[in-house]
Amino acid sequence: MNPRRVVVEVSSTLRRTPLSAARTQKLVELTMSAEKVRDAMVSISFVGTRAIARLNRDYLDHAGPTDVISFGMKRDNSTSAVVGDIYICPEVAARNAKRLKISLRQELERLVVHGCLHVVGHDHPEGESRTSSPMWRKQETILARAR
Questions:
Q1: Chain centroid to CA 118: how far?
Q2: How far is residue 95's CA from residue 101's CA, in Å, rounded to a whole number?
Q3: Domains of the chain (ranges plus CATH)?
Q4: Tens digits of per-residue pLDDT, 95-136?
Q5: Which of 3, 44, 53, 113 has a C-alpha 20 to 30 A away from that of 82?
């Protein structure tokens, strides 16, 4: 049996990293385990509003900052390694957290798991139905296990 190998790189362009690298790594590992991914290389970058807005414009043709953007390399099959980059904007996450009446930490944890699920290949509809999608339910199940 092959051992699980999940490599996580956490970086931040911000003065203070909003979620510890250890906690971020744990969330990535939990998500990969829940998805039965044995091999993965995932980078997570905490960035400011300018950087995320630029990524949003350049790669997704959307205007303005967003909370999370994920880029995953296409896998040959379900046993191929997962490789992806996730960018999270804590400033946008803070606004979301306030609106949702949850802590910034909870929202950042949700975005880490959410980004990982996108990298693995999951997607969700836009709009209100997003929170009742299979991906959202999977995300919330992983977060419940992480607590």
A1: 7
A2: 10
A3: 5-146 (3.40.390.30)
A4: 999 999 999 999 999 999 999 999 999 998 787 888 888 999
A5: 53
